[in-house]
Structures are given as C-alpha cells and as structure tokens.
Amino acid sequence: MKIFLTVWFGQLVSRIGTAMTRFALLIWTYERAVEQGNPATAVALFGFFAFLPLILASPLAGVWIDRLPRRWIMLAADVAAGMMTLGLLALHIGGHLEIWHLYVAEFLTGVFEAFQAPAYTAASTLLVPREHYGRAGGLRALAQNGAQVLAPVLGGVALYTIGLAGVMLVDLATIGIAVVTLLLVRFPEARHQDHKPAAAPNSALWREMAFGFQYIWRRPGLAGLTFAFTGMNFIAALTYFSTLPAMILARSGGDQLALATVQGAMGLAGVAGAILMSLWGGPRRRVHGVLLGAAASFLLGDTLLGMGQSLPVWIVGAIFGSFFIPIIGACNDAIWQDQVDPGLQGRVFTAKNMWGQALAPLGYLLAGVLADGWLEPAMQPGAPYGSVFGWLVGVGPGAGIGLMMVGAAIAGATLCLGMYLFPAVRNVDTAKEETGAAISLNASAQPA
Questions:
Q1: C-alpha to C-alpha distance for 347 and 344, rounded to whole angstroms
Q2: Helix (H, G, I), strand (E, B) or coil at 191
Q3: pLDDT tens digits, 81-128
Q4: Of 46, 92, 94, 439, which residue is the least packed, with the fewest Cβ within 10 Å?
Q5: What architecture is the 2-445 domain classified under in CATH?
Q6: This prediction's pTM
Q7: What is 339-400 written as a DSSP string?
Q8: Per-residue pLDDT at 435
Q9: CA pair distance 159, 266, nearest whole angstrom
C-alpha cells in the first residue's frame, strides 16, 4: 500500500495541474468560439479529440503494457504529457496559439492516456490486496475528482493573475512531481499464474492486439458490461462530457464564476463519492454499484442540470450527477481486476476501454451539430420547439442543450436498468466465484 499511495499522491498532484490547464484553455476557447457563432461545437470537439485516440491506440497500448514494466509506461506517458504542455506554452508565448492547436494537444493527451490509465489500473492489481480493489478504485477516483474540485477555482484565479502561460508552468511543475514519485518506487512484476512471462517478446503483434477483444467476447458477462459502457459513454458524450460547459455559460450570460462553481460542485460530490468508496469498498454485488449508480446519476443529475435555469439548481444537479461516478468506476474496475489474470490485464483493459469508448467520439461530434445546428435555434423564443418544451427547460440561449440533457438522462437510465434483463450481466461479479480458478487458468492458457 505504501508504493500505491506514493504513486497515487504523484498522480493526484499531476491531475490538479492538468485540470487547471484544461479549464483555462476551455475558457480561452469558448471566448473565441462565441465570436464565430459555434461555442457548443468548439467545446464538444475538445472531448472528441481526447477520446478518438482511445479507439485508435488502445490495442497497441495493451500489448506494450503487458510486455514492458508498467512503471515505465506511466513514466513515459507523464513525460510526453509534459512535452506537449511545453509545446503549447511556446506557441502561446510566441503569440501563435490557435484553437486547432488545442485539438491536436487533446489528441496527443488521449494517446498518452490510452497507455497511462490501464497501466495504472493494472499496476494497482499487483500493489493492493484483492479485498481492497474497491477502496483502491475509490482512491483513484478521489484523485480525479479532487482535481476537479480545485482546478476550476485555482485555474480561474491563476488565469487572471498569472495568465495562461503561468497556468501551464504550474502544470509542468505538477507533472514533474508525478515523475519523481514514479522514479522513487518499484512495482512487482506481472506474471501469469503458471509463473511464465506475461507476453513473449516474439509473439505476433496482431495476435496480441486481438487477444483482449477475444478474451472479453468469450465471457458474456464482461462483454455485456462493456456494451453497457459503450452506450452510457455515448449518451454522456452528447451532453454531460461535452456541451454542459457551453450550456452553463450560455444560460448565465458567459459567467465564468458560475461555470467554475458548477464544476467545483461536481468535483466536491465526486470527492464525497470517492471517499465513501475508499472507506466502504462498495456493495458486495459490485454490478449494482455500476448499473444502479449510473441510472441514479443520469436521472438525478442530468435531469436537474437540463431543467435548471439558475445556479442553485445546477449545483444540486451537479452533486447528484457526480456523486455516483466514483462508485460506478471503482465497482467496474474491481469486477475486472478480480476476473482477469494480472499478466493479461494490459491487453484486456485496453480492449475494454476501446470497446467501451467506441461511440464516444461520435457522441461528441453529434453534440455540437445537434446543439448549434438544430436544438439551440429551435428553442429560442417563438421557435417551434420552444412552445412545446419551454415549460420543461425554458427558452433562449442554452435551452436546446438543456433539452438534450433531459433526453440523455431518460435514455441513459433506461439503458442501465435494462441491462438487468440479461442474466450474464446481472451475475457478472459472481461468475468467478461459481467457476473457481478455472477462469483465470484458462485465460492464461489462451495464445498470446
């Protein structure tokens, strides 16, 4: 646990710096996109270019995560992220920074994340006892949501005191702390249960890239759970992860403090959920933490955010929407860590991530098109949809995105609860208990 907590602290500090930079760049982008008349599209494209690399790079990332020491994978990803921030800083100081540069940066960040995130989760399997997988997932979520709490406040203050260049310098310093913590520790080596190396160096690359998908496909429970996340991430990409900042800014008259307050509330609620998860460890049937938690997040969070027309309502919606997210993620991670042999987790986890995020880029693209090109104009005073749905979400700037959020809430909750109709998904976290060690032994025998 000492090694895990050391790494966790470095990643927490790094996430705070990165989130500060992202918040500052988001404000910078929105202000310029308003002049061009496409703020929702410009903000949504941030997510598109961040998620696209997860689709493209994940299979290759999984192979190298199982072949190479996972600590070095994390080190390389952190150093690469620092170099990218340094490049943006140079462009900004030289007066050449453009919005499309930020999209390139988001794409590169997604590539690094395709390696770093599953390596971090797989390494945690070797550092933490099985009974504490849920708590470790809660701590990882605590780092992510803690950064979300501090980033809007610190990023907003820093943007107006030390400027965008100063914010990026802080980001570089926090990345340096993460690199130092990784250099100070050593990870156990990942091996199969038969104690053979996790992946033979001369294995056919394409077979190793396909292995993770084959592993999931042969296990209906894991495959069904992955399909559920494919749908949930697509729906969330339409609104919660893409156009929510544009909606808050549009409905508040461009009030950056309102956006920072909502994002801060989201982060605080996420911290509360993460602390609960790290102390509690999650429900005994972890699938309930995933499906019921996601349904509650959609219904209680997205609905209030979409219907709300004032800061207090958005804050309540942000709290309900974010509180369950750490529980969802930690329970899902614990299911996979328990079901998959440590020596296979690089390939399987990256395949899971790629499969689960497959439609998210499409969601980000559709978000901007639906908002700027259709629903926002249709929800203006006197427009066709305004008279029909105005009682629900109001009319005027941001109302079209609000209507999208309410629709996404209904669709997301229906999907999550509907997954209980499939026994393989409903019983996914008991499959290993019922079949004993045969699952992991058979997994180790699969060709690499």
A1: 6
A2: strand
A3: 999 999 999 999 988 888 889 999 989 988 898 888 888 888 888 888
A4: 94
A5: Up-down Bundle (1.20)
A6: 0.72
A7: HS-GGGHHHHHHHHHHHHTTTHHHHHHHHHHHIIIIIHHHTSTTSTTHHHHHHHH-SSTTHH
A8: 38
A9: 21
